Amino acid sequence: MEDFTELIPGLPEEIALECLTRMHYGVHEVASHVCQRWRRLLQSRDFYYHRKQSGFTHKAACFVQSLPVPVNSSGVNSKPKNQPKYGLSVFEPGSGIWDQVDPVPKYHDGLPLFCQVASSEGKLVMMGGWNPGSWEPLRDVFVYEFTTRRWTQRLDMPSNRSFFAVGALDGKIYVAGGHDESKNALKSAWVYDITADEWTELAPMSEERDECEGVFVGSEFWVISGYDTESQGRFKNTADVLDITTRTWRRVEEAWGVSRCPRACVTVGQNGNFTCWAESDPAIQVGACGVDIGDRTLVTGSSYQGAPQTFFVSEKNTQGQNCKLVKVDAPDEFSGFVQSGCFVEI
Fold first, then answer.
1. Which domain of life is it from (predicted)?
2. Class of domain 59-260+335-345
3. CA of 193: how far to CAs of 126, 128, 155, 196, in Å?
4. What is the DSSP letter of 162?
């Protein structure tokens, strides 16, 4: 592969850089084969932030979504023999484009059950969950690069945990709570540095929080609700909040006013308190999942158990509050049940 001295021969560097900045991320993988300098640039952290500052990143929602049921020889959907298989879907509301992320090589037949996904600096991180064959808890961590369209396996999570809170900011992934392989609720927390590929233990939260939800508000990581080992299913109304600068926690009372699981369905209400997406509209009252992507929120759910999955966009007003839900059409292959999701800025 040739290594050009100039980014684009015959063009000033600043103009050449702006040309590359305007390329859609979908062509980055092909463009990275032009020369070594292009490859280094397209995969660099500085280039990502340059594109972000220039307004040429693309905001999307990534969903852990059940895959379509195969069609048999008679042309009808065959009933799945076991539990549904899951993959990763990406939807760009700006362009209306739906896409499927390439399968994780280790799990080409379906993602680990109840795995968590988070994204930072244009990278997608998948971690934890249960082995889809044995249902044993996993510590795997995989990172997907949209530039190369490849997954790489990274350093395992320090311990087995499922149903934990997760949040991402500035190249780091924060995890807290959940339960271990013996179903004991946890109050421990860790932070993963994507670039350094290392885990650092954080101070524990004030209490155990199984099936909690993680939400970033500014530079604070909120771990909302959950329940103790001895009180499974009885969700708390409290939250633990991590200041990522000082790495200290504070406890907030009355943070979650709904006695239901907060996983994937937490949103900020008009009064600034956390509320549940499932209560905003009867069409999404079952299996609600919301992904905040800045100026709008992608929401999905169904009206009753077993009803078709529907997708909505909620635009935000000038005060940053979500407004009326507007239905979004999804192709049939992207109409499966959504387990969870995250915001991806590519």
1. Eukaryota
2. mainly beta
3. 14, 16, 10, 5
4. B
Q: Where in the chain are all domains bearing CATH 2.120.10.80?
A: 59-260+335-345
Give yes or no for a contact between 313 and 300, defined as CB atoms under 8 angstroms apart.
Answer: no
Inter-CA distances, 222 with 129, 248, 249, 343, Å: 21, 12, 9, 16
Written as one letter, the residue type at 104 is V
CA–CA distances in Å: residue 194 to residues 47, 96, 105, 200: 16, 29, 19, 12
Spatial contact of 314 and 77, defined as CB atoms under 8 Å apart: no
Mean pLDDT by 10 residues, the chain (346 residues): 72 91 90 89 92 93 88 53 85 91 90 94 94 86 92 96 95 96 95 97 97 95 96 93 96 89 86 84 92 91 89 78 83 92 94
Q: Extract the tokens encoding 5.
A: 């001295």
Contact 200, 191 (CB under 8 A): yes
Strand, coil or helix: 274: strand
The one-letter code for the residue type at 194 is I
**Nearby residues of 196 by Cβ (< 8 Å), 6 or more positions away:** none
Give the per-residue pLDDT at 58: 92
Q: Are strands 141-145 and 150-153 parallel, antiparallel or unpaired?
A: antiparallel
CB atoms within 10 A of CB 49: 13
Q: What does the DSSP 8-state code read for residue 210?
A: B
